[in-house]
Each structure stands twice: as C-alpha cells, then as structure tokens.
C-alpha cells in the first residue's frame, strides 16, 4: 500500500518547515486556495497593517499565526478568502526617524531662514522612503512562517486612494448622523506640534523618571454659603502636580458625594475649604 503521508526517520523541524514551504510554492497553494473558490461566499481579510520602518518581532509571528488560523479555517469551510496585506505609513515615529537621520527639527521644515532648511516636498519624499525601509524583512518573515497574504498588491495608508476612501467613509457616517462632537484629554508634543497616540507614547525613550514641582493653590469661592464667610473670605485649597496649567484654569471640579472639611486657617490663608 502506498504511503499517504511522508515519514521522517529523524525529526528535523527546520528541514520539515523548508520542505512544506517549497511544496506550497511549487504548487501555488495559496493562490489556488483563493482562485479555485471563485463564486463561493466570501470572507474578506484586510490585515491590520504593520509599520514597515521597523523590524518585525516575535510578537508579530504570534499575531499573524492567530490571523492565519481564522483565514485557513474559513477556507476549509468553503469560503473564498481574499487576504490583503497593508503598510501603515502614518505616524510620528516615521517623522522622528527622518528628523533624527537628517539632523533637523520641525522648525527647519519650510523655514528658509534655517541653516538646515528642507522643503515640505523633500521632507515628505524622505518620509516615504523611510517608512518602507524594511519591507523585504517583512516579506521574508511572512514567507518563512507560511503566512498566507497578498503582499504583491498591498494597501498603503499614504496612497491617495486609501486616504480618500477614509474621507468617503467619514462622509457616510456624517450623513447617517453617527458623528458627534466630544471632548477628551489628549497628550501633546510641543516639539512635534501634534497630539500623541497610545502607540506613540509606548515608543522607547518616551518616559523617564523626573522630579516635578507641585503646588497647593488657593481658589476664591464664588457665591459662597453664608456660614463660610464668618471668618473671612473663603477659598478652596487644591493640590496639583501640573502647576503650569494654573494660569489657564477656569474652574474646579467638586464632587457632590464627597465630604469636604471647612477649617479656619492662618490669616494669610484666610478661610479654606
């Protein structure tokens, strides 16, 4: 009886891996798994794009293994699973990498009075080059781990077609009344002139241990209760670790379910709550 599966006398996982990959390449298994299911129900997969200006890591192998598991399962269930790779080319790390390489800052861009002047066009061109720096390393990893995805026709987030698609989608949300105005506190980089995402805040070197000056400040109470005024002008006492925000303060937050203590303080503090 012919052997249905290959038998290995010695376990050489590296060689087994290479043999399987070569067999998949020779038989064009990935594309056949897509093309031979033309007309079947579709399961569409757009990869959450990595940034190609950095090296892939072992965590990418783990994440891609999980993604591939779902795509292969759907394929075995009879779906046509088109898998599109992508490259995330937006983000502050790209800009900072270019600025470090060129020895410039944001203040030098389009500033003809600067000794390190660079035009916006040249700066953007350099960013486009930098962001795709490690695409070959990503392709090598993708192929070596047997991750099935279309790397030859990726979507790229700096491409105008992609950007205009996002604007179109926002328009659809707006027309359906799904957009609303809200407020949230966002970290901001004065040097970069932009807000920072959670991903950017986790870049190496973003945090360091420092000693900050704190301030306990007095805030004059408006329309205080009569009993508060028996000993003088009442003030709220508040402690802050960000004293540089005090000049722009417009109000204090107090909690209706929080107990506050009213006490008489030295004359220079007058009366504090």
Describe this protein's structure.
- With 273 residues, this protein is an alpha/beta fold.
- Helices cover 34% and strands 13% of the residues.
- It has helices spanning 13-26, 29-35, 58-76, 92-102, 120-131, 135-144, 160-175, 198-201, and strands at 45-46, 83-87, 150-156, 188-189, 194-195, 215-220, 234-240, 263-264, 271-272.
- The strands form 3 sheets. It has a 4-stranded mixed beta sheet, with no helix packed on it. The chain has a 3-stranded parallel beta sheet with strand order 1-2-3, with no helix packed on it. A two-stranded antiparallel ribbon has the order 4-5.
- Strand 8 and strand 9 (271-272) form a beta hairpin.
- The protein is elongated.
- The chain starts with 12 loop residues before the first helix and ends with a strand.
- The mean pLDDT is 89.
Rounded radius of gyration (Å): 30 Å
Specify the helix fraction band: 25-40%
- Total strands: the figure is 9
Main beta sheet: 4 strands, mixed
CA(first)-CA(last) distance: 92 Å
- Total count of helical runs of at least 4 residues: 8
SSE class: alpha/beta
| Structural shape | elongated
- With strands numbered from the N-terminus, the spatial order across the biggest sheet is 6-7-9-8
> What fraction of the residues are assigned to beta strands by DSSP?
5-15%
| Uncertain residue ranges | none
The overall average pLDDT, rounded, is: 89
Can you tag this structure with a few keywords?
273 residues; alpha/beta; four-stranded mixed sheet; three-stranded parallel sheet; 9 strands
């Amino acid at each position: 009886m012919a052997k249905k599966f290959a038998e290995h006398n010695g376990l050489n996982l590296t060689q087994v891996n290479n043999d399987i990959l070569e067999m998949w390449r020779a038989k064009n298994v990935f594309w056949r798994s897509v093309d031979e299911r033309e007309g079947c129900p579709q399961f569409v997969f757009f990869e959450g794009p990595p940034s190609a200006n950095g090296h892939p890591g072992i965590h990418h192998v783990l994440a891609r293994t999980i993604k591939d598991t779902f795509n292969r399962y759907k394929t075995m269930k009879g779906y046509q699973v088109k898998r599109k790779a992508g490259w995330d080319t937006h983000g502050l790390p790209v800009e900072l990498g270019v600025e470090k390489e060129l020895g410039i800052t944001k203040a030098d861009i389009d500033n003809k009075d600067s000794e390190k002047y660079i035009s916006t066009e040249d700066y953007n061109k350099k960013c486009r080059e930098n962001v795709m720096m490690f695409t070959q390393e990503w392709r090598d990893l993708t192929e070596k781990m047997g991750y099935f995805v279309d790397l030859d026709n990726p979507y790229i987030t700096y491409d105008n077609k992609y950007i205009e698609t996002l604007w179109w989608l926002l328009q659809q949300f707006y027309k359906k009344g799904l957009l609303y105005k809200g407020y949230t506190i966002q970290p901001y980089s004065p040097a970069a002139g932009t807000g920072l995402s959670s991903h950017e805040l986790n870049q190496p070197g973003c945090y360091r241990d420092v000693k900050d000056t704190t301030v306990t400040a007095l805030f004059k109470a408006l329309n205080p209760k009569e009993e508060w005024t028996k000993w003088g002008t009442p003030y709220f006492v508040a402690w802050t670790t960000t004293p540089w925000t005090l000049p722009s303060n417009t109000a204090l937050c107090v909690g209706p379910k929080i107990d506050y203590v009213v006490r008489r303080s030295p004359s220079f503090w007058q009366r504090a709550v």
